[in-house]
Amino acid sequence: MRNLIISLSAVLFGLIGGAILMAATGHDPMEGYRFLFQGGLKNVSRFGDTLATGTPLIFTGLSVAFAFRTGLFNIGAAGQMLFGGFCASIIGLKLDASGAVLVPLMIIAAILGGAVWAFIPGLLKARYNVHEVVSTIMMNWIAYWTIYYAVPAYLKAESVETESRALPDKATLKAVWLSDMFGGSYVNMGLFLAVIVVLIIAFIINKTTLGYELKAVGFNRHSAEYAGIGVNRSIILSMLISGGLAGLAGLAQYAGNGNNIQIGVLPTQGYDGIAVALLGANSPIGVLVSALFFGLLYSGRGFMNAMTDIPPEIADSIIAIIIYFAATSVLMNRVINWFIGRRRSNAGSAVSGKGKV
Amino acid sequence: MWTTIQQIFPYAIMFTIPLLITALGGLFSERSGVVNIGLEGLMVIGSFASAFTISKLETNWPGHTITSIWIGILVAAAAGLAFSLLHAFASIHLNANQVISGTAINMIAGALTVFMSRNITGSGNIRLTNGFPPFDVWGLSDIPIIGPLIFTKTYWTTWLILLIVLFSSFVLRKTAFGLRLRSCGEYPQAAEAAGVNVRKMRYIGVLISGAFAGLGGAIHLVTIAGEFNGTVSGLGFLALAALIFGQWRPLGILAATLFFGFASTVANVSQVIPQLADFPPILLKVFPYAITLIALVIFSKSSQAPKAAGEVFDSGKR
């Protein structure tokens, strides 16, 4: 309940901040927000696009949130996503099989690719106590350059140097019936995969011994160790799962929403995953909701940009402001405590007042 | 081979300087006990502030190119300092997680500057018509061997930053202020007991990091990039790595950033140098990051990290 209030007030502050930015640059905030939300919700096709834009964010948000439960700050979702997506693309482009075989293999490849990329920071943390924040940032840039050279070398498109060949439709998460249902939107099976994975992760965190052990390590590493939990093993395992989830984000992005990989970009969804996890209070369901909210902002901004002259970066600015306020949620916590305290003392004085009469 | 080295050297130094000053900023922040992952974002702020100032001055005050650039650099430092207040306030007064707050700084900086520049120029890029001109140091550039390496094609900013590094090294090690700042990062409760205002020192540390990172972003703009486009391509993160690689000491940072400067320059020019053309470019590009990981492992046993960096200051803690 308290988390919900904090998240909602962070969103509110973000929207107010966005409004101030728009007003300060000479635009009408009401008009801006109207087109922004219309752009994401106006009809089934736009709503489908919102769901699709949110899909990779669900995965990266889950990835960050899962690691966070074990006390690990995975900033490397971008690199894990890139490498997972790359591994899936290799299977999709190089293997000649039917879609029913190909897609499950691509899912496995994406998970493994992301997990491999997260394994190194996990191992360094467990064995040498190297802080995962720095090592995952380094791994991001190593992924960036690996993809930069590996895509042209192995998956080069016929004419364009800067992206991989397009995947054949059978090697993607696209489904004609789904796309038709949403009026030609690019929403795809990735969404269903994401919802299933949300449920699985929620189950792991809340109902299994593994989830309990990982959380115990996150709460207090030393007491977990004292209780006989293999702390190092938990750290590595948590990073592996976190990386696998980020790898699935790569699959959802490069073989679902799109059908190829561009070189020279670190996917922004990786960093946005931090935002999603933070706003979702690190709970799987919270992640699902906040990812779809960010999906709405991102998919609506194009429409807003077309209808007004407000730059599309307003959506990123709003998200960034939300994160700042979610990070400083202590402030909100104090306000809530102050409210509770005042109500209690009011109630107390009312009771004592009664006693006097 | 010699001519190649001669040609590479000035570029490597040019690349080193923004990295150096930013990492030095990070040093002040971490020594005071606040981890600053937002260096990348603060550099972007500096890059934007200087690009905006310089391009405005170029049109409204023509004929004063060099003065305009210097003013732009100063404005960038001020902008970085002002922006770092957000991080300082969150991590010192609101007990926010410093890594998350720093990440928020990065995100706000990237989004906000491109938003502003799109409002101003319509394209999200601000291109400078004039860069900072390099010059040969009179007299010194004729010295054999080191002359061509160090004193040709240099920038005034390079000498300024080197002075700042030496001065910082002195301040941190020899002055009362430096001692107090470092004590806040090592054992803030003891510092407080000794009468040091821990929160104030931490504010100063973070604000210095903001000003220096802003300076780094501006220098990157006027010497290397020549155009603001919303990113400094990961230099801020590399500066963070250099800080750790340099083991939280000014001269260590100088060595680490020089190393990164050379590694990056070699990777950038490898295709045109016959001796390096045989190397797969991917290895050269990945090298600085991979070596950082290895260095982290090697130093993990003897890390000189400030002990309280990243911890919320709780004056009741023992």
Automatic annotation (TrEMBL), chain A:
InterPro entries: ABC_transp_permease (IPR001851). Its main location: membrane. It is a multi-pass membrane protein. GO terms for cellular component: plasma membrane. The chain crosses the membrane at residues 47-68, 75-93, 99-120, 132-151, 186-205, 235-254, 274-298, 318-340. It is found in: Cell membrane. Keywords: Cell membrane, Membrane, Transmembrane, Transmembrane helix. The keyword 4Fe-4S does not apply. Pfam families: BPD_transp_2 (PF02653). The keyword Phosphoprotein does not apply. GO terms for molecular function: transmembrane transporter activity. This is ABC transporter permease. The lineage of its organism: Bacteria, Bacillati, Bacillota, Bacilli, Bacillales.
From TrEMBL, chain B:
One of its GO terms (molecular function) is transmembrane transporter activity. This is ABC transporter permease. It holds the Pfam family BPD_transp_2. It comes from Paenibacillus albus. The keyword Transmembrane helix applies. GO terms for cellular component: plasma membrane. Keywords: Cell membrane, Membrane, Transmembrane, Transmembrane helix. It is a multi-pass membrane protein. It is found in: Cell membrane. The chain crosses the membrane at residues 9-28, 34-54, 66-90, 96-116, 156-172, 203-222, 228-246, 253-273, 279-299. PANTHER family: GUANOSINE ABC TRANSPORTER PERMEASE PROTEIN NUPQ, SUGAR ABC TRANSPORTER INTEGRAL MEMBRANE PROTEIN-RELATED.
